[in-house]
Amino acid sequence: MSGTDETLTAIIERTLELCRAAGASSAEVSAGSGQGLVVSVRMGELERLEHERDKGMRVTVYAGRRKGSASSTDFSDKALQNTVRAAMAIANNAGADDCAGLIDPDYIAKECPELDLYHPWDLSPEAAGELALRCEDAAREHDGRINNSDGASLSAYAGSHAYGNSHGFIGGWDWSNHAIDCTVIAEQNGNMQRDGWYSRARDKNDLEDVAAVGRTAAARTVARLGARKLSTRNVPVIFAAPVAGSLFSAFIGAISGGALYRRASFLLDRLGEEVFAKHINIHEQPHIPKGIGSAAFDADGMATRPKPLVKDGVLQSYLLSAYSARKLALPPTGNAGGVHNLIVESGAEDLPALLKLMGRGLLITELIGFGVNQVTGDYSRGATGFWIEDGERQFPVEEITVAGNLLEMYQKMVAVASDVECQRNIQTGSVLIENMAVAGE
To answer: Do the beta carbons of residue 59 and residue 82 sit within 8 Å?
Structure first.
């Protein structure tokens, strides 16, 4: 570890020393620090400029099988002592939990692969403002029907993350995260529509050109003008890549240890069973260079590794922390804190080819609200998008609701397009589902 990480390493070492002195049988500490710049503009004027700097640490102590946690944003020695004291007070008054405790030493990460996550952007406020203005100007100039704006913003962050425990493990990495986004408003014949676009990356050189982001935001907004409602019907549905990830977010939640040991998952006891269509393959790739979700180890300090989650439609693995693994009497999977780069394998078809394959149906480009029951899998969300005939967009639609059951939707996935959205932890292309209920007027 280097740079700021050396400070975090010292904080972790000192905190673990204090935990031992306070009588903890074991302990773990996570710490982080970061700084960044956010600039927002609207209608050609600077609206917001913020410099952000933050740091924090969290300590968890164990008194046998009793657990206590406390956190602090103050790294002074007195603050560390007070934080450990508070955690011990909680542990000493907590009930025993046979599943509590550090991960077994055999699972601890032995080394941290280089993941190329740190690309700080030395950007002045003036330069950041100019880039945001260029983005918004490109959107506003793209089409005469763009008559208002929610603005454009640029953010540039960099920081460090570290974790250590009383098994003797301390590790961490530096990281960066940059983004540009723009949202504008268009009007035609009294009808107003709003939409936007963004680009996000670890490295500024991997961001889309700011003017291209603005033009895409404008094109998406103008395309929604003249939106209509649909009558209620059952039709094939395509979830465009930027929203298709939400289908797999629900899948992640359903195979996560907390939902499973609480028996609050529609995929309970489905390990080894076919839960997706036979051609669907999903895997975790935690070591992708510059990946948004890449991590050398999880929140327990367990080494991450690539693994299949779904193979030929069959569920291969749950996502388990040390605690949830003990609750379920299964081995941990290196997923304390979540999944690291979920990859949904795509087919050869691009989105236009997927529209041709569907022929007639609904293309969803935005989802509204949250309507997923993780226990039953029932799914119902507001949506906007486009009505498709003969594989071509006919007109935009709005004020509709799409509904189904996630397990049935997974098993009726006809194809995943090649237009993979790589700017998030879940990477998937557009998804065609054989049939869903669409409620309209």
So the answer is: no
Report DSSP state, residue 126: H
Per-residue pLDDT averaged across 381-391, rounded? 97
The mean pLDDT of 48-59, rounded to a whole number, is 96
The letter for the amino acid at 412 is: K
Angstrom distance (rounded) from CA 2 to CA 424: 27
- Do residues 292 and 298 make contact, with C-beta atoms less than 8 angstroms apart? no
Query: What is the CA 121 to chain-centroid distance, rounded?
Result: 22
230 has a pLDDT exceeding 70: yes
The 3-state DSSP class for residue 83 equals: helix
pLDDT for residue 26: 97
Question: What's the confidence (pLDDT) of residue 210?
Answer: 98
pLDDT digits (tens, 9 = 90+) for 162-176: 999 999 999 999 999
Q: What residues contact 371, with CB distance under 8 A and at least 6 apart? A: 379, 380, 381, 382
- 3-state class percentages of the chain: helix first, strand second, coil last, to nearest 5: 25, 40, 35
Q: Fill in the DSSP letter of residue 371.
A: -
Q: Could you please report the per-residue DSSP string of 3-64?
A: THHHHHHHHHHHHHHHHHHTT-SEEEEEEEEEEEEEEEEETTEEEEEEEEEEEEEEEEEEET
Query: At residue 281, does pLDDT exceed 70?
Result: yes
Give residue 5's pLDDT: 66
Interatomic CA distance for residues 98 and 299, integer angstroms: 20
3-state secondary structure of 272: coil
Kindly report, residue by residue over 100-119, the tens digit of the pLDDT.
Answer: 999 999 999 998 899 999 99
Q: In degrees to the nearest 10, what's the CA dihedral of 394, 400, 406, 408? A: -60
C-alpha distances (whole Å) from 358 to each of 139, 144, 333, 366, 425 are 31, 33, 37, 19, 27
**Strand (E) positions, 82-133?**
none
- Structure pTM? 0.93
